[in-house]
Amino acid sequence: MFCEDSIFSIPDQSLLPDHSSLFVGHEMPVRHYDAVPHETQDDGGYIFAFSVGLALLLMFFLLFRKMKLKNVLMASFSDSKMSVLIRDSKVKNDFSLFPIPLIYYSALAMTAYIAMRDIYQTHIWGVTDLPFMIGVLMSFSLIRHSLIKLLGFICGESATIKNYTVACNLFQMMGAILAIPLVIIAGYVNVLYVWVVLAVVGLVFLLRLARGLAMVLSRSGVSKLYLFYYLCIIEIVPILIVAKILITL
Asked: How far is the first Cα of the chain from the last one, in angstroms, to the nearest whole number?
């Protein structure tokens, strides 16, 4: 077939089909005459700097205590590996592992701060919201820890409660390792990663609770059922209270 190119004469326009425009009478009015600026969230690297600080604190803690991530993971699920880890890391008391809940709850507070800032568009005092949230979560952690220690003393199971606390801290360490990079992604890439962080926190809570309660039931003496019941109350009731507050708000 021979096709006419541009060097040949233009075909007669009357031979072309003629149709009325579909857009006649449907013009949309112009509403934005000026350029609409692209809104960006710039916090001056506040979340990034805080996350890097937490990562460095976690790294220094692991180096100081001579902990390897492989050993921490195995100790989280094994009593014998936990005993070896406590001996090699020289964990003498509860304060030896104090940086772990500080790092973990700080990462959780950053998640809440990003959710308030980017999802709910809410601020209380601006950048000071993050230190306030960390203080609230750490106060909750200290109160919960004190109640658990008091419960172990009353039931005569102080050694069991010590192992329970160490297991909880090990799971929180693994949760912090996963949460810190996800917080950076949620703050600067996609805010929907906030829900991924919350999923990690929920998984850590379930694993920590299951491991701790299994340890209590296997180690405790006559009062193990009472210790089991009260630990369930201490661990679960605060979650129900927070859920009630969020639903009300």
From this structure: 74
Determine the 3-state secondary structure of 77 from DSSP: helix
pTM exceeds 0.70, yes or no: yes
Cα–Cα distance, 180 to 50 (Å, whole number): 10
Tokens of 32: 């934005």
Give the C-alpha distances (Å, rounded to integers) separating 150 from 107, 220, 232, 241.
27, 15, 15, 22
CB 214 within 8 A of CB 82: no
Q: How many CA atoms lie within 13 A of 182 on its CB side?
A: 20
CA-CA distance, 61 to 63, in Å (whole number)?
A: 5
Contacts (Cβ under 8 Å, ≥6 apart) of 227: 151, 152, 155, 157, 160, 216, 220
pLDDT digits (tens, 9 = 90+) for 106-144: 999 999 999 988 888 887 887 889 999 999 999 999 999
Q: Are 213 and 224 in contact (CB under 8 A)?
A: no
Q: How many other C-beta atoms lie within 10 A of the C-beta of residue 95?
A: 8
- Structural tokens at position 180: 């810190």
3-class DSSP state of 66: coil
| Average per-residue pLDDT for the chain | 83
Tell me the CA distances in angstroms from 125 to 28, 43, 116, 120, 130, one per residue in order. Answer: 43, 14, 12, 15, 9
